[in-house]
Amino acid sequence: MIKYEIIQVQNILNRHEDNSDGFSAVYTLNPYKGCEHACQYCYVLSEKYVPYKKKEEFFYKIQSKTNAAFLLNESLKKIPQDALIMIGSACDPYQPAEEKYKNTRSILEVLYRYKNPVHIMTKSDLILRDMDILSKISSASFLAVSFSITSPDELSEI
């Protein structure tokens, strides 16, 4: 059973040291701690950073960072406008919790105001809900969306 919890965090952006992709800097942002998708291939739990005492809690204990948009607004004042913001490096920003909390939507509205380039990683069609703001971001700056697509094992040999 999924447990939801509202949390306040101290910061929302994490600087990624490799900026070889042409942007002045790359920052990651995760609107939630934990991910309901529970993908078998999820790399987060294989990293040295495991956000919970028990690894499996990552999939059923979802923490909503409700102050994310506020913190992002403050943080974007201090970084270059061409710094890429990657959303969803350690959770899916459009996991089912997003329907209720709308953290990702709020974050996108802030990013549009600052005109930073955005890269979103998701496997959810909930992203379609935000096509209006995504279109605005795409017109004003840069937008990339990466989808992970899974298939049945019998198709893996194709």
In short:
The protein has 158 residues and is α/β, with parallel strands linked by helices. Helices cover 25% and strands 22% of the residues. Strands 2-3-6-7-8 form a 5-stranded mixed β-sheet, covered by helices on one side. A 3-stranded mixed β-sheet has the order 1-5-4.
User: What is the 3D shape?
Assistant: globular
Tell me the number of structural domains.
1
- Compute the number of strand runs: 8
Distance between the termini: 35 Å
How many helices in DSSP terms?
5
Low-pLDDT stretches: none
Assign a percent range to the helix content: 25-40%
Measured on Cα atoms, how large is the radius of gyration?
16 Å
CATH architecture descriptor name? 2-Layer Sandwich
Strand residues, percent:
15-25%
- Which fold name is given in CATH as the topology? Transcription Regulator spoIIAA
Q: Within the largest sheet, what's the order of strands? A: 2-3-6-7-8
CATH C-level class: Alpha Beta
Order of helices and strands: EEEEHEHEHHEHE
* SS content category: alpha/beta
Report the biggest beta sheet as strand number plus sense, adding barrel if it closes: 5 strands, mixed
